[in-house]
Amino acid sequence: MMTEKVAVNDVLSSVNSLITLCEYSIEQANNKNFRDTLIDARNNLENLQWQIYLISKSKGYYVPAAPAGEADIEQVKTAISK
To answer: What is the four-CA torsion angle of 50, 52, 58, 61, rounded to 10 degrees?
Structure first.
């Protein structure tokens, strides 16, 4: 039986896959108009992804990770700057 939670997660997973496909296609596009169309599609998908995330979070289907602490942020900054 497909619950609402499963359906929301399935849609989110599908949207994420489409965003990945758009990103790859943008990188490979050789036609400016086609590339711009793909960029618009990706942007729309990212907006949809955000809306699904907000729904999922509001219903308790998704609990985001705790924010990174200052020590963690500094560690990443140091690693990147090397």
So the answer is: -120
**Residue type (1 letter), 71:** A
User: What's the half-sphere exposure (Cβ side, CA atoms, 13 Å) at 22?
Assistant: 19
Alpha-carbon span 41 to 74, nearest angstrom: 35
- pTM, full prediction: 0.76
Residue linked to tokens 């793909």: 38
Spatial CA neighbour of 41 closest among 29, 26, 56 = 26
Per-residue pLDDT of the chain (82 residues; tens, 9 = 90+): 889 999 999 999 999 999 999 999 999 999 999 999 999 999 999 999 999 999 999 999 988 888 999 999 999 999 998 7
Do the Cβ atoms of 48 and 61 come closer than 8 Å?
no
39: helix, coil or strand?
helix
Structure tokens at 63: 């609990």
